[in-house]
Amino acid sequence: MKRFLYDKLLKWKNNKNKKPLLLQGARQVGKTYLILEFAKREYQDFIYLNFEEEPELKTIFTKSFNPHEILKNISLYTSKRIIPERTLLIFDEIQAIPNAITSLKYFCEKANNIHLISAGSLLGVKVGKEKGFPVGKVNFLTLYPMNFYEFLHAVNEDLVVEELININDIKPFTELIHNKLNDLLKIYLILGGMPEVIKTYITKNDIQESIEIQKDILESYKRDFSKYSDRNLFSKISLIWNSIPYQLARENKKFKYKDVEKRARGSTYLHPLEWLIGAGLINMVYNVKKGYLPLKAYIDVNKFKIYFNDTGLLGAMLNIPSKLIIKPNAIFSEYNGAFIENFVQQELISVNFNELFYWTSKSDAEVDFVVQYENEIIPIEVKSGMNRNIKSLRSYEEKFKPKYLFRISPRNFYKNDNFINIPLYATESIRNILEKLI
């Protein structure tokens, strides 16, 4: 299945000043598959080492960090010659051997002609505070769950993706195409972006079997909670994790500690929240008091929302019935639009809007997402239904005078002066649209 990050891997390979690459991402997002596909297509040969499956490999990194000594031992162990620039060396699940992470520094300094990609699922949890972490000596990339356009590629809708990516004029699609894309989006909202889930749906055409795989993934996450944390931390991580779907299902989606545990305090749950963020399982969106640059200067640290890394897993935790996708707009409005907001933040992050915020007025106005694009602050309101009301956007406009106002909704493309409606299925195109506008 096509992943857009592949092009960034190619840029890394062709960069003369490259460093060892560290590919981050939550479990099950397809890191290993992507790296192996890249290795098979772009290199004459590769050596793949999985440090979780073969813990005895730690002895290679015990006595020396000299990369040439490490390479010699790897070559002898695998019975393969490592040829600079022709052989790709892959360290998978690198978090299992912290010394292997430390070795990346020395590969950067003393063997930079060796093409080395490492990958790990819990790097922010397991090694984020390790003393030997090679700061400044590695290139980073992050792989997220498959976004909607990647899903469209997977179901052979390449022409539609090409059209969406290359939008020049903001004008409505024909109703036939608009309805087709909304129907495909309904399926994606149930499936989410985990590659195994999507592959199962494509090969077996059975959404229910795909949902069972989602449940298996959720169980594997829970096992990680206990494996990579102590008992006290594990219980708090679990409490937060289990509360998120129901907090999102409220009309007011602001995260409340009291909904995690009665009399809970923020200071008690700071570490568990950091753990979930470090594992790549959740994203936090902070409230900003003003819509000016820099947005971080106006954060209210006590007000934030928490979203899942994958809308499909959110649905599995809420036990959403797959039959909702055959109802006209049920999946869009179900659970107070929890799916839709979660989907939009997931899509925005996938196109490198890594810092998301939201804004609320002192009365009742709320803009769901506020992002920075170059030197412009862009407010984005999300609608799960066909309601045309943009009262909150207008309230924001009156106070902060943004250049453009965006609404993301099930409606078709539409532009009127500085107001732009983007269909939900085209959320990923918002960066390209801004590039043409600004």
How is the topology of this model organized?
Blueprint (H helix, E strand, L loop, with lengths): L4 H10 L6 E4 L6 H12 L2 E6 L16 H12 L8 E6 L5 H13 L4 E6 L2 H4 L12 E4 L5 H7 L3 H8 L9 H17 L3 H10 L2 H21 L3 H18 L17 H13 L3 E7 L10 E10 L2 H7 L12 H21 L6 E4 L5 E8 L2 E7 L8 H10 L4 E5 L4 E3 L2 E5 L6 H8 L1
Parallel strand pairs: 1-4, 1-5, 2-3, 3-4, 6-8, 10-11, 11-13
Antiparallel strand pairs: 6-7, 8-9, 9-10, 12-13
Helix pairs in contact: 8-13, 9-10, 10-13, 11-12
Overview of this protein structure:
The chain starts with a helix and ends with a helix. The protein has two domains: 5-142, Rossmann fold, CATH 3.40.50.300; 148-437, no CATH class. The chain has helices at 5-14, 31-42, 67-78, 98-110, 123-126, 148-154, 158-165, 175-191, 195-204, 207-227, 231-248, 266-278, 311-317, 330-350, 391-400, 430-437; strands spanning 21-24, 45-50, 87-92, 115-120, 139-142, 282-288, 299-308, 357-360, 366-373, 376-382, 405-409, 414-416, 419-423. The chain is 44% helix and 17% strand. The mean pLDDT is 92. It has 438 residues and is an alpha/beta fold. α4 links the parallel β3 (87-92) and β4. The strands form two sheets. Strands 7-6-8-9-10-11-13-12 form an eight-stranded mixed β-sheet, sandwiched between helices. It has a five-stranded parallel β-sheet with strand order 2-3-4-1-5, covered by helices on one side.
Key words describing this protein structure:
single chain, 438 residues, alpha/beta, Rossmann fold, 8-stranded mixed beta sheet, 5-stranded parallel beta sheet, 13 strands
